[in-house]
Design a protein that fits this description.
eight-stranded mixed beta sheet, alpha/beta, 12 helices, binds pyridoxal-5'-phosphate, 17 strands
């Protein structure tokens, strides 16, 4: 029996042990240690943002961004219908409601043309300067574009229309650390950019996240909110309802070591993506999702598209041969708690769900493993 090829596992072979040991040896284990600041600087610097505030995970980074930007109970936030669930949940934590938007079939990211059409047709700008949903009467305070599997959202249109309509962009760049859109890093377009360092992301701290922003006041507010809104160095004075959302020094230490490897990991991910693409190119039944012109993906996850009649059978076939693959996310508006929210002209996302499969993508993946995975895919279509 041949060994399994995992979908996505972390690679830890840099200075992780050394830096974590340093935390343990010195006793600086909580969020007040040096590595937290180093990690924040490293990530913000890499992304090209002024400030970084590390958080316990990517979901918290999204939540605290929304709170800091003033998303309130009763507001609406535009969220892709095809994404990992975290951004929709973060909206709900604020007491706000998601408005689900379709995806662009080429990137699987938010369809920005449809978003623009929705904003033009379905909203009005009121005298208070905000944009309101004509049907529900609710204020549309923000939009959360998600750079799906590392592919950048088409940000030009979105940035323009959101500036015009006073809608904040909170970027969910949790999957796209190091991806670029028109030479600019994802996570640096929005009012804030959020990243995750969960175990299956391109780099990991075990669990962790960060908010980056160029706005010093906002960064201060986020830092304050993530440390229980404590406002006196000595006394227990708290001036609003805060959160315990700060990353620990131990995790940050691991993050500093992982950041040292990021460029190498991205190069490997991109090289392996090319290899898959080339090996699959002769097979008419399979399309390998590639990046758009002017976009550079970190290729965090690899996605193939097949006929909908083949999707589930191919998944079963690959798993039976020890190749870990997964369907992409169920559309959020089909899940029980999100069934009753606005979902605007959802078409491409349905098609994407019924045709797309994620295939093994670990940084450690060998050429032989990629060849084997492709051979098994080809085998399915030959039989
Ligand atoms: C991973 C991920 C997050 C955040 O995940 P955490 O596990 O909370 O760090 C948010 N959004 C998307 C799209 C993700 O893939």
């Amino acid at each position: 029996m041949k060994s399994e090829i995992p979908l996505s596992v972390p690679v830890i072979r840099g200075n992780e042990w050394k830096y974590v040991k340093d935390c343990l040896d010195t006793g600086w284990v909580s969020y007040v240690g040096d590595y937290v600041g180093k990690f924040e600087k490293a990530v913000a610097g890499y992304v090209g943002a002024e400030y970084g505030v590390a958080t316990v995970n990517g979901t918290c980074a999204l939540h605290v961004s929304l709170v800091a930007c003033g998303v309130h109970s009763g507001d609406e936030v535009i969220v892709p219908v095809l994404t990992f669930i975290a951004p929709a949940n973060a909206v709900k934590y604020c007491g706000a409601e998601p408005v689900f938007m379709d995806c662009d079939p080429r990137t699987l990211c938010l369809d920005v043309e449809k978003t623009a059409n929705f904003i033009k047709d379905k909203t009005i700008r009121k005298r208070d300067g905000f944009t309101y949903d004509k049907d529900s009467g609710r204020r549309i305070k923000a939009v959360i574009p998600v750079h799906i599997f590392g592919h950048p959202t088409d940000m030009s249109v979105l940035v323009e229309i959101c500036a015009e309509k006073n809608i904040d962009i909170i970027e969910d760049a949790t999957e796209s650390l190091g991806s670029k859109y028109k030479r600019k890093q994802t996570g640096s377009f929005g009012k804030t950019g959020c990243f995750s360092f969960n175990g299956n992301k391109i780099i990991t701290t075990g669990g962790g996240g960060i908010v980056v922003t160029d706005d010093g006041k906002l960064a201060g507010k986020i830092r304050h909110l993530t440390t229980q809104a404590k406002s006196d160095p000595l006394e227990y004075v708290h001036d609003e309802v805060g959160y315990n959302y700060r990353l620990s020094n131990i995790q940050a230490a691991m993050g500093v070591a992982q950041m040292e490897k990021l460029d190498e990991y991205i190069a490997i991910k991109r090289r392996n993506a090319s290899l898959y693409k080339n090996l699959l190119s002769g097979l008419d039944e399979v399309e390998f999702l590639w990046e758009m012109p002017r976009a550079k993906s970190n290729f965090w996850f690899y996605t193939i598209r097949v006929h909908k009649d083949d999707k589930n059978l191919l998944i079963k076939h690959l798993i039976s041969k020890g190749i870990q693959v997964r369907p992409i996310w169920k559309l959020l508006n089909t899940l029980p708690m999100y069934r009753n929210y606005t979902a605007y002209k959802i078409e491409a996302a349905k098609e994407a769900y019924s045709t797309c499969i994620n295939i093994p993508c670990s940084v450690d993946l060998t050429e032989a493993q990629i060849e084997r995975a492709v051979k098994v895919i080809k085998g399915y279509f030959k039989s």
